[in-house]
Specification:
single chain; mainly alpha; 5 helices
């Protein structure tokens, strides 16, 4: 169901926060790669059900480990 998928996605996003706190950037990058797959990006309603605070935190983590302008 939609709520169950959103709960699971939120769980993985919260794991990302913990990985960042542990400075485990390799695993965080792998998790970010998985969550940003096109198949998950198409689940707009599922992502919409994830709490906005968790979405904002995830967006910050994604930009932190982004390779853009990483020189």
């Amino acid at each position: 169901s939609l709520r169950e998928r959103a709960r699971q996605l939120g769980f993985f996003m919260s794991i990302g926060s913990e990985l960042f706190k542990l400075s485990n950037f390799s695993s965080l990058a792998a998790l970010e790669t998985g969550i940003s797959l096109p198949a998950l990006k198409r689940l707009k309603f599922t992502v919409g059900e994830v709490p906005s605070q968790l979405q904002a935190e995830w967006k910050q983590l994604s930009s932190t480990i982004s390779a853009v302008n990483n020189y």
